């Protein structure tokens, strides 16, 4: 079922520098980003804390607590805390020690577009197991932990890649089921190019928890920042970094808004090294004619929104009515 969103979801996260002298300062930024991200989602929120321990094919069973409003579950190599409502309602100070120790953190705030907001199965971060993976490397995939901001043509995507039945009703889950089975840059780009609609994504392969994958497809914004201790961050709104400077002890050396059609791999070039951009690749994303509206830039300053809008470079797919709850895209024909 498709839900009409009044806004977009919020993405944020951190990849730590192992030699940072003040890990608690980067944690303060994560909590600040999560609070600011409430402007882009209050249906649910969550954090994934990656321990840096790779997940195996025979990962241990889940442990922790869960009910219909919230959960705190430990997967092998990953702790995921999420719940219905705002990030402020999900976050609690008792998590600070675990946050300080996590080499990588993925955060999400949700406005429901596809999938009911009342089910925790639709809340992110999503943990996609290796058994759910689809693609040339699915047989040895350990699964991924992932977040998505946007709204894509899920029916067309499922028809093309045939992922297994999903646990929830979001458009995000089938995308990550397919991405979990891709190991090469060309394979990942093939999946990203197949997306039709709005999409910004952040995910971690649980077999390589030190590597973060970021992608901005059509419309959905995504920015990256580096602080003065060489920690790497990402967020849906670049203004959040400027506000974080005002309310924490962290200072950012660089804040960059990613262009549409950007895929990045972030991580240390060698064990124990500071994280950096390991590789990048471009692709031509596809949006629908109605995807570009002011909701894309919820919370942005007018200057940031204008600068980003002027740089859009996706192609537009004409749409044909199909089954209830969506449209079927035809061949893209124009470029914005």
Supply the key terms.
globular; alpha+beta; 20% helix; six-stranded antiparallel sheet; 20 strands; disordered N terminus; 336 residues; single chain; Glutamine Phosphoribosylpyrophosphate, subunit 1, domain 1
Short description:
The protein is an alpha+beta fold and 336 residues long. The protein has helices at residues 23-36, 87-90, 96-101, 154-161, 172-179, 185-194, 239-247, 302-310; strands at residues 10-15, 44-50, 63-66, 70-75, 78-84, 104-110, 126-129, 143-152, 197-205, 212-216, 223-227, 232-235, 252-257, 262-267, 276-282, 286-288, 315-317, 319-321, 327-329, 334-335.
Could you outline the blueprint of secondary structure elements for this entry?
Blueprint: E1 10-15, H1 23-36, E2 44-50, E3 63-66, E4 70-75, E5 78-84, H2 87-90, H3 96-101, E6 104-110, E7 126-129, E8 143-152, H4 154-161, H5 172-179, H6 185-194, E9 197-205, E10 212-216, E11 223-227, E12 232-235, H7 239-247, E13 252-257, E14 262-267, E15 276-282, E16 286-288, H8 302-310, E17 315-317, E18 319-321, E19 327-329, E20 334-335
Domain Glutamine amidotransferase type-2: 9-269
Protein name: Glutamine amidotransferase type-2 domain-containing protein
Please provide a written account of the structure.
The structure is a single chain. Helix 1 crosses helix 7. The strands form 4 sheets. The protein has a 9-stranded antiparallel beta sheet. The radius of gyration is 18 Å and the shape is globular. Strand 16 (286-288), helix 8 (302-310) and strand 17 form a beta-alpha-beta unit. It has a single domain (10-335), classed as Aminohydrolase, N-terminal nucleophile (Ntn) domain (Glutamine Phosphoribosylpyrophosphate, subunit 1, domain 1, 4-Layer Sandwich), CATH 3.60.20.10. Mean pLDDT is 89; it is low at 1-6, 323-327 and 329-336. It is built from 8 helices and 20 strands. By secondary structure, it is α+β, with helices and mostly antiparallel strands.
């Amino acid at each position: 079922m498709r839900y009409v969103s009044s806004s977009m979801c919020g993405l944020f996260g951190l990849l730590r520098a192992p030699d940072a002298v003040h890990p608690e300062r980067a944690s303060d930024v994560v909590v600040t980003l999560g609070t600011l991200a409430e402007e882009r989602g209050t249906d649910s929120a969550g954090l994934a804390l990656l321990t840096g321990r790779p997940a195996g094919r025979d990962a241990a069973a889940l442990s922790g607590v869960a009910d219909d409003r919230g959960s705190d579950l430990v997967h092998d190599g990953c702790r995921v805390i999420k719940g219905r409502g705002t990030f402020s309602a999900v976050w609690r100070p008792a998590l600070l020690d675990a946050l300080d120790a996590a080499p990588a953190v993925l955060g999400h705030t949700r406005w429901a577009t596809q999938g009911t907001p009342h089910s925790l199965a639709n809340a992110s971060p999503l943990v996609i197991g290796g058994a759910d993976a689809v693609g040339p490397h699915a047989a040895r995939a350990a699964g991924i932990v992932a977040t998505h901001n946007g709204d894509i043509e899920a029916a067309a995507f499922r028809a093309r890649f045939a992922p297994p039945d999903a646990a929830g009703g979001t458009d995000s889950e089938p995308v990550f089921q397919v991405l979990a089975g891709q190991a090469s840059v060309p394979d990942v780009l093939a999946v990203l190019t197949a997306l039709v609609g709005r999409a910004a994504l952040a995910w971690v392969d649980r077999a390589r928890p030190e590597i973060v994958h970021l992608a901005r497809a059509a419309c959905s914004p995504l920015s990256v920042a580096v602080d003065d201790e060489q920690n790497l961050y990402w967020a849906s709104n670049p203004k959040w970094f400027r506000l974080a400077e005002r309310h924490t002890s962290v200072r950012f050396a660089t804040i960059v808004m990613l262009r549409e059609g950007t895929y990045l791999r972030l991580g240390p070039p060698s064990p124990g090294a500071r994280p950096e951009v390991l590789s990048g690749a471009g692709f031509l994303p596809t949006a629908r004619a109605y995807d570009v509206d002011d909701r894309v830039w919820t919370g942005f300053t007018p200057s940031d929104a204008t600068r980003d809008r002027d740089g859009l470079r996706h192609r537009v797919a004409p749409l044909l009515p199909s089954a209830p709850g969506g449209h079927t895209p035809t061949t893209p024909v124009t470029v914005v």
